[in-house]
Amino acid sequence: MSLRTLPLLFINLGGEMVYILDQRLKAQVIPDEKAKKVLHDIVSTMFNRRFMDELFKPQELYSKKGLRTVFDRLAHASIMRLNTASMDKLYDLMTMAFKYQVAMSLTPRDVLLVTLNHIDAIQSFVAESPVISGHVDNVYQLLITNYGKLSIGEFQLIRQTLLNFFQDMHIRVSIFLKDKVQNSNGRFAISTAGMVPYGSEPPGIIRMFSTEGEHVKTASFPSGGNYTYSMQQGSIELQGNRCTQLGTNMYAMNKPFETTISVPAPQQPMSMVREHE
Amino acid sequence: MKYCDYPSRSLMVMACQRGIQVYDADGSVMLYWHSLVPPSSDEVSASFARGISTFQDCMLCIGTDSGNILIFDVPTRGANIVLREMLKGHTAPISCLFNKEDLLGSGDDSGKVVVWQHDVDSNSIQVLTTIDIQGSPCSSVLLWEELVIVAYASGLIRVFNVLGRLHAEVAAHARWITAMDVAPATGLVLSVSEDSFAKIWQLKSEDTVEIEHKASECVQDVQLCGCRFTSVNGSSFCVTGYDLAEVICFAAK
Questions:
Q1: Does the model's ipTM exceed the 0.85 cut?
Q2: Taking CA atoms, what residue in A is nearest to B109?
Q3: Is A167 in CB contact (< 8 Å) with chain B?
């Protein structure tokens, strides 16, 4: 397992948390000033420089319980208060969303692009505060320094460590069920159509070579799916095109949506944000 | 983890973070532990072992993240497993090992494949061939007849002869190929991938070397990560997948 996984786990889960809180603050018509303060306080705590320096040291992942405690504390780093049920639902949504992003990444390196999508969005949430914006920039630099030059094999190890952490979590999320990216049994839908990773070839061709190394014959076979080339590689530059939607804010779409989570008992809305002054 | 079968015994071998554990066949007794880090070290170590194979019915081979392959002598009985040497042909982490008779194939994360040969007379292991195509990690390597079959993270399968000449290249899968197996009696090859497909290929090595697609099976919504033929002629096989508690078995009609 990789010892470089924890920063990616924390930053991406934190990013999902910010998306969900922003959506709930808007849905409950919390005044702009207060909503902004909540998000600014949370992002500021999340990206505290000393905490980030510790996080980026090579280490094993926290336990599931340990990580949940970290996010419990983070969610209460502002004037916002959540009851236990709301915090449970928030954490379930965060973890299932990131699990989906890691599982569906076209290549292992896309986990870094997903992280940068989260960073880009967080930066837009705190753009009005130069201090907090500076913290986010610092984290971007840490990501590029620590992950910018890793090999595909090292990224696959990180991805496998993350998938291991999320193994056997099959919580059904209504926004995923609605978009048909998750089945009613909790499994993510894997499409047999779409792009292959950048630099790879859609399946279906066999090339034969002569003893002189010349390509002499081509045969084709049914690939079983409908795949196309990727035309562009995702960029890790500050303003680069990440070329993936994974890690962007799925709650910001222009359609009616819910962030409820289906539970065995009667459905309950996520009634979390009760302001506390 | 792998069951290693020798003429007189079977061992259950686990390649782990920081070391290697060897158990007896039912996993009840640990016979041997080899640490990849100095025993006195409390520091967090990134070392790991990956890739397990028997070799010539008397040795155990384990790959490591440093690129070295550890070779152990395995006695016919008892726990006296001894590290005999380290093969140094790779600099990137080993991803897979495969043994056929006196040949050992090893692949690494950079895409390099080395075929090693054991010489019984001198009892030494030497490099026979190096196939160094960089760019995509090698995820699995097989040896069949005079051929070396290599699967890559890019979804490609390449067929070489043991001296390194490329015979065929297949754009086989849309995602990382996670495992392969070969049925030695018939030359059927099984490959599985995170694209949820298990595919069967027929190798031919008489006049010309060819590879032909025979069948595909899609295990819906499952990223496959392991596979094995369960019959010598390849008429049945099993697969495993991420987040899947079941082993799924297929058989030819």
A1: yes
A2: A153
A3: yes
